[in-house]
Amino acid sequence: MYFTHADPVWNAHPRLRAVTLAVDGVLGTTSGHESGRERREALTARVEERLAAASESAMPEIAAWREAFSRMGLKPTQYRCASEALLRRYRKERNLPGFHPLVDYLNVVSMAFAIPIAVFDCDKVTDGITVRHADGSEVHRTFQGETEHPAPEEIVFTDAAGHAHSRRWTFRQSALSVVSKETDRALIVAEALHPTAAEDLAALERELTAGLPEAGVRIVAARRIDTTDRRLEFSYAGGDPAGGNSAVGDSARGDSVRGDSVRRDEETA
């Protein structure tokens, strides 16, 4: 399997950086052990500090996504990146509902770093994912059970079968590939556009490479995505999900998200 961004996306957004991790063992994910609770408490404390220091729109990580959304012709107060939507909800409620241990962990990491994270069930993805401009033929399944076709030129996460696994880039994920209690193999993608994206994503990667194994998840492959290294290729023991023919997986390099967002929710001002 693979993950990559198409060249036109890089041309339009040259500051783009990402961290990608392919994982398995998700069926065994736990959240109740002591180290997991301590890790989540530390991340939540960081979220509280961030919210006390600035509004979501003033955070450079989110300001960069707002600028990108504006350039794509989207109102930033109508279409918010996943991390902003999570932080806004948390600021109002000081809590998030639980969906799945992996998703819940990734949601708090996303808030702590103010960086959107998506996670996809690889058994529902055909061959791999390319982030590209839509041509209008792609199919997106909503959480209300409806089928949508992204507008031409909208940035989507799409696979070889034409499924749009996310709409409006970091806004809303498809119900097709959401992590559920049946998920065992997943792809995690964190993307950023702000000036210190590379450094912040490196720190986020260190958090994930420590936190995921503690929760019982195995990292199969990982890669930091930038202008010179644009593609993650990976495979799972026993063959790839969704009938994919992928190249040999690369090893995770530690130093070098969805239920309901890591799902990208729509929220209006």
TrEMBL record:
All copies of domain B3/B4 tRNA-binding, residue ranges: 63-210
Organism name: Streptomyces ehimensis
Family matches, as Pfam families: B3_4 (PF03483)
Source organism superkingdom: Bacteria
Residue numbers spanned by region Disordered: 235-269
The name this protein goes by in its record: B3/4 domain-containing protein
Amino acid composition bias (Basic and acidic residues), ranges on this chain: 252-269
